[in-house]
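Re: [help] complex structure
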Amino acid sequence: MTILVENLDYVVDKKLNVYKNVDILIKKEYENENENITKIIIGKNLVKKENLNKNDLKIINGKNKCAMPGLTNTHTHIPMTLLRGIADDMILQNWLNEKIWPNEAKLTEEDVYYGSLLGCLEMLRFGITSFNEMYFFSEEIMNATKQIGLKGVIGFPIIDFGTPESKDLNKLLKMAENFIKKHKNEKIVKPAIAPHAPYTCSKETYIKCKEIADEYNILLHTHISETRYEVVEMENNIKMRPVEYLENIGVLDSNVIGAHLVWITKDEVKKLARHNVKVSHCPGSNMKLASGGVMPLVEMLNEGVNVSIGTDGPASNNNLDILEEMKITALLHKAHRWDPTVGDVDTVLNMVFNSEILGFENNDIVLLDINSPHLRPVNNIKSNIVYSANGNDVDTVIVNGEVLLKNKKFIFGDKFLNDVYKKIDKIIKEKFNIGEN
Amino acid sequence: MTILVENLDYVVDKKLNVYKNVDILIKKEYENENENITKIIIGKNLVKKENLNKNDLKIINGKNKCAMPGLTNTHTHIPMTLLRGIADDMILQNWLNEKIWPNEAKLTEEDVYYGSLLGCLEMLRFGITSFNEMYFFSEEIMNATKQIGLKGVIGFPIIDFGTPESKDLNKLLKMAENFIKKHKNEKIVKPAIAPHAPYTCSKETYIKCKEIADEYNILLHTHISETRYEVVEMENNIKMRPVEYLENIGVLDSNVIGAHLVWITKDEVKKLARHNVKVSHCPGSNMKLASGGVMPLVEMLNEGVNVSIGTDGPASNNNLDILEEMKITALLHKAHRWDPTVGDVDTVLNMVFNSEILGFENNDIVLLDINSPHLRPVNNIKSNIVYSANGNDVDTVIVNGEVLLKNKKFIFGDKFLNDVYKKIDKIIKEKFNIGEN
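Output below.
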C-alpha cells in the first residue's frame, strides 16, 4: 500500500537537501517475496500530482516530525546484545580472554537467534534500516533479520582456529559457501563472507574468502588495523602493515568492507582509495576500548574513500544508536585535530545515509519526533539531528515501504517484545549466572 | 504527600549501591515556601516498617524501572537553547564574534525567560534536578527555574566590558549584589556571582566578586583555562597561568566552582586540590569547540578534587543531556590516555550524582524506563546507565518530593509546552531571521 506522510515540518533527503512543510509519498512499484522497488517522492500536493485517490493510501501525520532517510550501521555484531555490560573498563586482551570469549563459547544457535532479534529491535527503534553484520551462527542472524524486516548484510565469520560453528577451518569455509549459495539471490538480506582479521586468518584463508566473494559477487567484511598491537606484530613478523599486506595478497577490492582502520598511514589511506575499499568507522568502540589511534577521517575523505559509521557490537559500545554515534564521530575528530570545522554536520550525515555502501538503495524513511525540548528551536534541522537528537527521538520507521515502528511502538506488539526479553533474561541467567536473584 | 515507588526492578543509590526488587519511599518531613526536607528510604515492606497507611500515599509503579538519584549539571547557560544549532563547526573566535555575541545582543529579558523555561524543561526531561547556571538577566532565569521546580544555582554574570544587563561594571556589580541579597535565603534556588573568566575580568573584579561571595556565603562560578589561547596570553602578559593567577590574587577557595580547566598543569591541579576548588568538566563542549586539551580527570581525582560534569550551553553541545555527557566523559578519557580502565562506570556516576557540589542535598529520584531493547539485558545496571542509556530513557522525575515528570510527560500539560515552543519560534524568527518561511 502506498504511504503518504502528510504535513511534515522538515524533510532532509539523502542528498542533504532540506524541505519545509512538505509531504512524502512512499510508493511500492514492484514487489515479490525477495525484492521490492519502493520509490520516495517529496513535495506538495502529491496526491493530485501522482493522480492518486487518498482512500487508497495509508496516511501518516507528519506534524512535529522531521523525515530523513533510513540510517545505516556498517559494522556490528548484534547477538552481542546478550553480552551488553558484562564487562567494561577493561584492557582489551583481558576483556576478550576473561569475559567475552568464555561467555561467547556458551552461546547456542537459539541464543544467537534471540540476541539477534533484540539487536534488530534495537536498531529499528533507533532508525537503522540497514546494517552490516559479522557473528557466528549466521543463519540464525539471517532469520532474525528477515523476521524483523531490516536490510542486512550477514557475514559468515571465518577464523583459522574456528568459531562455535566449527573448529575445522575447511568445514567452516564450506559452511560459509553453503550459506552464501542459499541466500545469494535474496535482495532484502544479503550474505557475505567475513574473515575476522589479518591476525586470526592466514593468507590462504583471505585468498579463499576473496575467491568466494568474487565468485558470488558478495561483500568481504573484515576487521583491519583496530589496535596498535596487531600492526606492530605484523610489522615485526612480515615487515608489512595490515593494509599493505592485504593489498599484497590481492584481497583489496571494491567488494571489501573494512572496519576500524584506526592505525593506518597516509600511504595506506591511498591504497584503500585506489582499490575502492569501503570503510566502516567505529569511533565509540575505538574510544571505549582505548584503541589509542583515531581513524584518519579527513585524509580518507580527501582521498575519496567511501566511509560510513558502525557501532561495533553492543558489548563494546554499549548500544546500537547511530544517532549517538554521529555526534561521537563529529566530536572525536574535532577534538583530535584541534579543528572544529572537521566532522561537520554534512560530512557526518553523508556517512549514515549510506545504505548504498552495502548495496541497498536507500528508500527507507525515518520520522524523528521533534516535539521535544532538546530539539527546539529549529535554527538548523541538520544540526539538531547530528548534535541534539538521540535514537529514542525516532518515532516512525518505514523499511521497504512497510511501517515497522509507529509512534515509538513496534508493530510486533508487546507480547512479542516481552517474550524476547524474557527469553533473553533466561539466557543470561543460565549462561552468565546473572539474573533475578 | 509521601510517595511510594513500588516494585522497582533496580535502584542505584548515591553511594552507588545496587538494589534489586525494592521499593522507595519519598517522605517530606518538613516543608515551607523556601525549603523542604525530603527523606529517601530504600527497602522492602516500607509501608509496614514506617507504619504508614497505603491510602495516604501517592503510589508509583516501579515495574521495568530503575531508580537513581537526580542528576546534576554543573556548568550551563540555559537561555542559549535559543541559539541551539545557530552555528556549528566553526573556529571558536568566529563562532563567538560572528554568531553568538551578535545574536545574544538581541535578546530581551523576556527572551531569556523563555529560553530558560525551555532549558529547564529539557533538563527535567533528562533527569537533571539541579544545575549551575551563568547567563545574563539572571532574575528571569531564577523565575523560570522556580516555575519549573528545579534546584538551581543562578550565577549573575560579570564581565568588565559589560553584559546586555548593563555596560557599566560598577552598576553590574551592584545589580549582582542586589540579586544575591534578594535570593540569598532561598533554599531550593540559590544566587551566585559569576565573573566570566580571567581574560574578561580584571584582578579587581575578581577580588570584588570574591568579597561578595564571602559576604553572602554563596558560590563564585567562573570559566578557567578553557582554551590554550587564554593560557598563552596570560603567560605572555603576566608570567602566570590562570589557576596560579587566581591563587595569587586570593580568589581560590571552596566556594569557587570553575568550569572547563582544560589547559592546566599538574601543579595547577594540586593548587585546585589544596584550595578545595570545585570543578565542572565539560567534555562535549570542549570536544565540539575543539579546545584541544583534555581536562586531567585522573590527576584531579587522584589529588582529591571534587569534579562533576557540565553540558555547557546548548549552543556548544547542543543539548543538556547529562546521560549522554556521562558516556562522552568515559569515552574521552579512555581514548585520551589509551587506557580503558579510566573514566570507569563508578567514577562517572559519582560525578553526576553530585548535587552536593552545589550545596543541594540529593534527595531527588529519577526513574529510568529500562523496558527498551537497548537497555536489555541487564548484565550490569550501572553500565547500562552510563554506556547504553540516553536522556529520553528518563520516565519519571521527582524533585523535592514533587513529581514533575511522569511517564515521560511534564506535569505542566501540553498547552504550556506548546505555548513555550510557539513563543520561542517567534523569538528566533524575529531575532535571528529563522522561521517558518
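Chain B has two domains: 3-69+365-406, 71-358.
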